[in-house]
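Lab notebook, bench 4. Still working through the backlog of constructs that have no structural model yet. Next entry is a single chain of 302 residues. Request: give me the structure tokens for it.
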Amino acid sequence: AGGAAGGAAGRPSVVVTTAIWADVVANVACAGEVDVVSLIPAGGDPHVYEPSLADRSRLDRAALVVVNGLGLEAGLDDTLGTVERAGTPVFRLGDHVETRPPAGGTGGRADDRTGGRAGADPHIWFDPVGVAAALPRLADSLVRHAGVDAAAAEACVARYRAELAALDAELAGTFAALAPADRRLVTNHDSLGYLARRYGFEVVGAVIAGTSTLAAADPAHLAELSRRIERDGVPVVFSEVRRSDDDAVALAAQSNGVRVVPLHTDTLGEPGSGADTYVGLLRTDARLIVDALGAGAGPAGG
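Model written out:
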């Protein structure tokens, strides 16, 4: 879905911060009653994105704004707060999921107006069950603020929740190919914690110590992470598509035989990539993870 923020063919505009969530919203508003507009284009980094004057105009004219929250869209927080105070409703998905803490943090249910509980991991889309649980509240907001038909929204939610339940079972089956000892993740930033929690992985560490790409890699941290990689026999560092992998490559170079494999994390892939929808992103990443960690591994066990 897409179109001008004013709403193509007179339809209300629903402005969504990221392409991932725009795809989810379009599936909840599947009857085509609203224009779903992604503010941050596919390939953009929500951690660092700064709004333009055109973005502000789109937000001002939206019937509803849908955001991740939990501090993901840090560069948009001030603008979103201003727009909301001016009367535009803002739906924060992070307010409607059970969050997890980043490394060293504390989690819980999101509960503040600008970013959720301080320290909560914002990468909530990596658990499709958690996303599915938030869809009825999202549908309610679309009905209330964007004029979506309630019965149509209920049918769309039921269909999409069934699709996400099937995806969850598929992902569990895909990951079953990995023995428990092979389910160890090292990532570019702390982005796969929800996936790890849902599917039984251990996050050994991240090149950037934190849940935001705004931070920088620290040499002492990288040296310690390299020691953990060698200790645990982790064969892969997962970098991110469309983002510099220089630090991940440098880390891999410190650790004998370690490869760098890019995943789709904070944004959808290009059309035809297989990761150009939310469901496709999770499916594609699961296959990449299993192919990378399972290379040369023995049979999966209990």
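Notes after review: The chain is about 40% helix and 15% strand. The chain has two domains: 8-171, 177-294. Flag for follow-up if needed.
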